[in-house]
Amino acid sequence: MRKKSKVSNTEKRVAKSRAVAAKTAVAVHAILRKKVAGSAKKAGKPATRKMSLEQWLAVPNAPVQRNTPEHWNEAKSRLAILREAHRTVNMGVTEDGKEFKLDGHTRSYGWANGLTNEVPDTLTVVVTYVKDVEAIVEEYHTYDAAGQVKDAADQLFSAFKQFNIDHSSSFFARCSGIVSAMKEALWEVSRVYKISGLPSNIRRVSVATCVQFFQEQLRALNAIGPTKSRFSGPPTSAFLLAHFKYSKLGKHVEDVEEFFKRHQADAGIKNAKVHDAVYEMSKIMTKKNGGGGAVHRLKRLAQILACVERFVGPGGRTANWQNGSSVNMDDYLIKEHAILTKNGKGAKQKKAITR
After folding, report:
1. Neighbouring C-beta atoms of residue 158, cutoff 10 Å
2. Could you tell me if 213 and 316 lie in one domain?
3. What's the number of domains the chain is made of?
4. Which residues of the chain register pLDDT less than 50?
5. Which CA distances in Å does 74 have to 63, 69, 117, 154?
6. How many CB atoms lie within 10 A of CB 109?
7. What domain range includes position 66?
8. Residue range 7-56, pLDDT digits in tens
């Protein structure tokens, strides 16, 4: 019995020694990784690391990675056969040690789901060290832009994911025209409010910037359940602008939402020769005359905003309107901006930009 006890104690000591050795090895590995990372950051160069496929697949996707299964269907003809170039991928690491894929998302989807002719055992991982998750997003867009051209709907998906906005509705998932509507609305806002980071040509502003600025409005629009037939183009721009305006003023926000809910439901009222503001908006959108292009869109936008203004005003929900009108787009936001500035709640006054 004593002999068995001695063997048992010996085994315990050996097991303990092995555990200490393993723990030490892990600590040394971590120190070496930190040294490599530190040297790479000081040199301003990415570091290179070898990873097994399992390790790579365990690295989280970039926070704004788009609809990967859908993009596999588009790219499978190029990625189904493993090539040498596919074995190199890029990863971002934040200062607090969080790791994210910067590219290779679609390849990884194919490998993980057995959709390729073979899978790599190991991968060469180029590691870029950045400050935080926000910098990860910037790096992701750099690699993404270099590797492929994303259409407007795809950019919208990434931006909605970045700002945690529901993207499940068919309107947001398929209606790329919302991007143009956001840019149109952002241009109108930028004529009055100072918005940092905007390019001189508003058409070159990123989709992510538009979504970030209008995220409150986009969530409210999503709650209405918009469809392409009712909201494509000027109605979306009008909703963003009107909701932005009255959110700033802290009033009539629910009235604005109610107006567009009725528009979506085609619930305008017509009595003989008179009608309400919601019906007037439907008339505006069904008119075929007036030409096309930017001038026509702006005209419709001004007319729709006039309908909203009537609806939120005293007695505005009654059906007593005969002829439509338009707001003056040059000062649509200026009056309320002046009120906010006077009360110390708005940004410094900015001279309106002429068209």
Report:
1. 23
2. yes
3. 2
4. 1-6, 28-29, 32, 36, 39-40, 42-44, 146-149, 291, 346-355
5. 21, 9, 17, 13
6. 20
7. 42-147
8. 566 666 656 666 655 555 555 445 545 554 554 454 345 688 999 999 99
The percentage of the chain sitting over the pLDDT mark of 90, rounded to a whole number, equals: 33
Q: Is residue 111 part of a domain?
A: yes
Query: Within this chain, do residues 190 and 281 fall inside the same structural domain, yes or no?
Result: yes
Residue 326's alpha-carbon distances to 132, 296, 330, 355, in angstroms, are 47, 13, 12, 17
Q: Are residues 280 and 161 in the same domain?
A: yes
Give the sheet arrangement for strand 47-52, strand by strand. Answer: 47-52, 122-129, 88-93, 99-101
- Residue 179 within any structural domain of the chain: yes
Give residue-wise pLDDT tens across range 225-278.
Answer: 998 889 988 999 999 999 999 998 899 999 999 999 999 999 999 988 899 999
* Single-letter amino acid code for the residue at 274: V
- Boundary-marking domain end, from 147, 175, 206: 147
Is pTM beyond 0.85? Reply is no
Let me know if 44 is exposed, middle or buried by CB neighbors in 10 A (0-12, 13-18, 19+): exposed
What sign has the CA pseudo-torsion 194, 198, 204, 206?
Answer: negative
CATH number at residue 119: 3.90.1530
124 lies in the same domain as 225: no
Please say whether the beta carbons of 240 and 290 come within 8 A: no
Give the whole-angstrom CA distance, residue 315 versus residue 317: 6
